[in-house]
Amino acid sequence: MDTHAALYEQGKQRLEALRKLPARQTVSLQQKLEEHGITRRDFMKWSAATAAMLALPLPFSNLVAEAAELADRVPLIWLNLAECTGCSESLLRATTPDVSTLIFDYISLEYQEVLMAAAGMQAEQNLDHAMETYRGRYLLAVEGAVPTANNGSFLTIGPHATTGVELIKKAADGAAAIIAVGTCSSFGGVQAAAPNPTGAKGIHAVIDKPVINLGGCPPSEVNITGTLMYYIMFGRLPALDMFNRPKWAYGARVHDNCERRGHFDAGEFVEEFGDQYAKEGFCLYKVGCRGPYTYNNCPTERFNSHTSWPVLAGHGCIGCSEPNFWDEMADFEKPLGRKLIHGLDATADTVGAVILGVTAVGIGAHAIGSLFAGTYEEK
Prior knowledge:
Elements (H helix, E strand, L loop, with lengths): L1 H18 L9 H7 L4 H14 L7 H9 L5 E6 L5 H7 L6 H8 L1 E5 L7 H14 L5 E5 L2 E2 L1 H4 L3 E2 L4 E2 H10 L3 E5 L1 H5 L12 E2 L10 E3 L6 H14 L12 H4 L3 H4 L3 H5 L10 H4 L18 H4 L8 H4 L11 H4 L9 E4 L2 E4 L7 E2 L2 E2 L4 H9 L6
Parallel strand pairs: 1-2, 1-3, 3-7, 7-9
Antiparallel strand pairs: 4-8, 5-6, 10-11, 12-13
Helix pairs in contact: 3-4, 4-11, 5-11, 6-11
């Protein structure tokens, strides 16, 4: 309780300081929401849900609401490096704008290659101006891995052929906080898969400042917006796990919150895609689901305005929020045998000892997950 009281007071002080800064938007957030048919009641319900998602008590919903209304005071620079733009798409391709989408639209977005109207030299001037004007104040979001081989020449950007390595180092130097959006920027992603000819790496490997990693290919829009809201509220990064991912989003295994978990416990498995068991919604572990090895909130938050996620749609989790998933999790439609989970030797056919006929398919159930989830350090 004392910890929450101190955090609440810190949030109040942070927001009071932001309120003294000049507004960057000519239209208030409330007006923007009303234009899209979102009422104040809807907004406050979103604020309460966001506070709960961030593992904060209900009174913090007032801070969430105020932080959202002051989001335009925080300059955001969003860089696109070696990537497919899927993370931007995750955030922005809602068929009907929701509060999260509109807040991202409301924030002071100084540079974002996919969204900005500027092009060519004007775009580069905008980036340089933002980094100089808001030095030490801007929030840096990065989408995509950083190619480092051949002095970074596998990725050059803009009229001066600036390499991704040069760009991220320059931008990170003046950033108040850095967010790696997606598995590519967090851990290298598919670009870093063997044999990795471009020497692609996550951004934490090429800069010497703390980075918060939002693993996922792509991460859900709530993980992106929630992290932005936490920083706006408190001016600091949230508690992180051993891979610098926010615990509120990556603190539980996909397996533990999956709607098919009951079938796993009952020994009811899909044997092959399209069989009768698949039609009945049985567990997908035998056809390759990586949910037992993966930490993310996909089952609870879902994608596309909380509509669905891969397992609900009928395909197993591929573990995309984990480091080196492309190499370590493949083949994605076959069950893993022996697998090191965050340094813990968990064996699919021995740990958990759930014996079904002649097949042992246990993953260690709740005890193993609790064991190493509890070893995460606060940062």
